[in-house]
Amino acid sequence: MANINTAGVDPTKMGVGRAIAVLTSGGDAQAVRATVRVGLYTGAKVFFVHEGYQGLVDGGDHIHSATWESVSMMLQLGGTVIGSARCKDFQTREGRLKAASNLVKLGITNLCVIGGDGSLTGANIFRTEWSDLLKDLISKGKITKEEAKASSHLNIVGMVGSIDNDFCGTDMTIGTDSALHRIIEVVDSITTTAQSHQRAFILEVMGRHCGYLALVTALACGADWVFIPEMPPDDGWEDHLCRRLTDTRKTGSRVNVIIVAEGAINKEGKLITCDQLKDLVTKRLGYDTRATILGHVQRGGTPSAFDRVLGSRMGVEAVMALLEATPETPACVVSLSGNQAVRLPLMECVQLTKDVTVAMSEGRYDDAVKLRGRSFENNWNTYKLLAHVRPPETKSNINVAIMNVGAPCAGMNAAVRSAVRLGIIQGHNMLAVHDGFEGLAEEKIEPITWNTVGDWTGKGGSDLGTKRVLPGKYMEEISLNIAKYNIHALVIIGGFEAFSGALEMVQGREKYEELCIPMVIIPATVSNNVPGSDFSIGADTALNTITSTCDRIKQSAAGTKRRVFIIETMGGYCGYLATMAGLSAGADAAYIYEEKFGIRDLERNVEHLTEKMKTTVKRGLILRNENCNSNYTTDFIFNLYSEEGKGVFDCRKNVLGHMQQGGTPTPFDRNFATKMGAKAVLWLTEKLKECYRHGRIFANTPESACVLGMRKRGLVLQPLAELKEETDFEHRIPKNQWWLKLRPIMKILAKYQISLDTSEHALMEHVISKKPPVHMTLKK
């Protein structure tokens, strides 16, 4: 970790003499906690503004300084802890004058606003008027010229906190993932009752004029139809919908699910409502139909692990953006693009968001989907691909086999489902291989159909069955069975064994010609240790399991006081789960293999906890990855802490074990697995065309065996041969792991005075240039 960044600035002194105010307008607690703590870490003064803009106008007790302890226990709270209110006063110049006066008196020139597009636009107006407001205040005698000079410029950084995910320029707004958790819980419960009674269910989800929540919900539960504002259905949709519902029933399904966004419209711009759909289905098809409007349930509850990590990452980025801002930099929003933190000019994002509304009102729906951004467009395209119920008449005569390898994890079944269905849509015959490579050798191979995988999206574990066995010793049998079943391509879904097993298969090509077929590996493991991907399917579910357990443990510790919990997480040698759970549960330390530690470090951690017990926060949480150190075991660390903490705190330990591999997949894992499964089969279809020679498939180039992974900003395919160089095979981890850069954030949020390398910050990027020409519809 570099001590000094490129500009030669000590991050712990960056904010000295500066003051930052944090206000939420509908926003989120995680981001507040991170902004406050990182602000304090840089030496700045940090203020809370209670009740949003109203507090800014009213001043007085509404604006007061924030301390380290005042944001403790905030991680597991949803909503906003410092209150939020819609404010008429701030919309008037008079109100903004009062607000400016309040800030100048406190010497606050940096404002961090967490809210939706309305709140952020308000902040920008405030900023552009700032110098005029100061002039008015001087002439009215409200502030002195000296005070005005000291506060001559206002910096503004926004974070988008909105469950609707309707802000252009950002892939995920803070709160969206948590809302999806609430929705999917309800959908899962509803589908079980619908199964029993053979019902059709119509669900309305929130999102105002944005269909994101509805679209992802439809993907994550395999709905029959989704209505979103951005893409009204074609004329005659009523017949099409009824036809699709009856087709689904004919294939043996006992349940129909239709998802409606609250702003869904038809081509004439008239609302499509739950009741309207219920009448249609009941009258035309005579199905027992129920409609449910989810309403404000979606806004509440505990934030998901993804949102906590997102809020913490954005909080750090926001403070850095404020402290690095000059009078010339435009107001910006910090946001996430793929897996990268980015800074975007606030007004360009607001403009884009307005452009979507204009595109929709002018009936340019393709443009509207494009303007929503790549993430939205990918979701829409995947939904459209998988929405067909009628497989094509013409068959491709291609056989694609699909298998799970390694330990089971949540989301494997969702990936199998989308791969199988997309394969069938493309005319392929799909074959299921049970029990991994061993099953391939022992002929546990059978056809798998559209209906077999119908309800697999929400199922945890692996329905195909999975084993850790590698193919090396079975090459002879495997090649015979590939020939016997005429397998032309292979989809391998699994963890590190899937990766190393596929490498063995590629090496076996020299000896066995049958192995010269295209192969694709989809990373699926709770450990997130497969080279070639930032995320693997199943890791998000495991992370949420660990986080909710830690929440309960922290609550227990907060009651008893002076108690430290030591928790062991899975992950093999990979510290991803321990680190990310540390960030999302607010741990004091997370011991991992990748970051070597010794007795001095353990001593420092114990001293740090002893100091912490003198504050109002009398509890500690320590995470330890199962293989972080063979000598410093969980028992050893527990004994050490117990001995050293005598009289100050007592300890408890908890080994989480296999509960981390189970459970129903989270919305993130369902959606991710669905997209990965579909993309993998699309790629194989292209590869098969390339490898077709003289009436047969022959693939032996490095490019014909790839890992499909998420890298920074999108899904990429990388040859196994290339990834081999990036892998530490002894410890089964990639040599370079992106999340290690997040570890300093965890330590800073736990009040360690360490150096944060600020040299790698997000640069300001422009979003407007991506705008499509106004009257051209963009073809896919």
TrEMBL record:
UniProt xrefs under InterPro entries: 6-Pfructokinase_euk, ATP_PFK, PFK_vert-type, Phosphofructokinase_CS, Phosphofructokinase_dom, PKF_sf
Pfam family, one: PFK
This protein's UniProt keywords: Acetylation, Allosteric enzyme, ATP-binding, Cytoplasm, Glycolysis, Glycoprotein, Hydroxylation, Kinase, Magnesium, Metal-binding, Nucleotide-binding, Phosphoprotein, Transferase
Localization of this protein: Cytoplasm
UniProt superkingdom: Eukaryota
Reaction(s) this enzyme catalyzes, per UniProt: beta-D-fructose 6-phosphate + ATP = beta-D-fructose 1,6-bisphosphate + ADP + H(+)
Chain sites annotated for binding substrate: S162, I163, D164, R199, M206, G207, R208, E262, R290, H296, V297, Q298, R299
EC number: 2.7.1.11
Residues that, per the record, bind beta-D-fructose 2,6-bisphosphate: 468, 525-529, 563, 570-572, 626, 652, 658-661, 732
C-terminal regulatory PFK domain 2, as annotated region: 399-780
Biological processes annotated in GO: canonical glycolysis; fructose 1,6-bisphosphate metabolic process; fructose 6-phosphate metabolic process
UniProt entry tagged with the keyword RNA-binding: no
Pathway: Carbohydrate degradation; glycolysis; D-glyceraldehyde 3-phosphate and glycerone phosphate from D-glucose: step 3/4
Main localization, broad class: cytoplasm
SUPFAM superfamilies the record matches: Phosphofructokinase
Active site residues according to the UniProt entry: D164 (proton acceptor)
Residues annotated as domain Phosphofructokinase: 20-321, 399-683
Region (N-terminal catalytic PFK domain 1): 1-388
Regulation: Allosterically activated by ADP, AMP, or fructose 2,6-bisphosphate, and allosterically inhibited by ATP or citrate.
Cofactor(s) recorded in Swiss-Prot or TrEMBL: Mg(2+)
Residues noted as binding Mg(2+) in the record, renumbered to the chain: D117
GO annotation, cellular component aspect: 6-phosphofructokinase complex; membrane
Cross-referenced NCBIfam families: 6PF1K_euk
Subunit structure: Homo- and heterotetramers.
Protein name, entry field: ATP-dependent 6-phosphofructokinase
Organism: Carassius auratus (Goldfish)
Lineage: Eukaryota, Metazoa, Chordata, Craniata, Vertebrata
